[in-house]
Amino acid sequence: MPIEIRRLIFSNDKLVEALPAYRATSNEKIPEGKVGTCTVVNDRKTAGTLEIENQFSQEVYQVNLGHEFVGAVRLEFCFETDIPIPQNSCRSEAITSP
To answer: What is the structure's pLDDT at 97?
Structure first.
């Protein structure tokens, strides 16, 4: 039986670009503001870290992103941009830095 393997790789910039659409459709609490940096962490609990600057108070918040959250952001981006995702696929988390 043949096996098809597809891999969608998101750069840090593409992940940051995908955040607003996911933020609008989810209940996840991410501070509003400009993302300064997006860093891949990839340990057991955290997939990455964002530094977000509040445009009004100039405070910088560090937000740790879980693997499930990053996966949901990527899936939402695929749905919104019509990137096909097989219904019976097996998904695994692998965060890589370009």
So the answer is: 47
